[in-house]
Design a protein that fits this description.
Helix Hairpins, disordered C terminus, rod-shaped, 2 strands, 119 residues, mainly alpha
Length: 119
Amino acid sequence: MGTLEPYEKAQLATRIMGQVKRVNAEEGDRVSAGQVLIQLDSRDVFSRVEQSKAGLEAATSQLNNARAYYERIKKLYEEKSATRQSLDNARTGYEAAQAADTKSRNTTPVCLRKSSRLP
């Protein structure tokens, strides 16, 4: 008697984490490239998409607000109507908002970043 060994072995992984809703193949089944082997619960994926969209919209809104505030304080400073500390605080807030917006854009799926106004 001999030992039966598989022709090929494959390790499976998904690109995103989620609850497995359905398994379309079992151990030992013959499968082909591109065949859907598992289906994830779309509610989990949809929830993460909505969270990403909301986070990106919030970061963009905060950036726009910080930019406008910085420009107002900068103009007032040039007119000698605002202190240097106010200008520095406004610039720091603007730079922090830029960093938060960049981080949000880098962690938001590409399909959601096509425009700053999301559907």
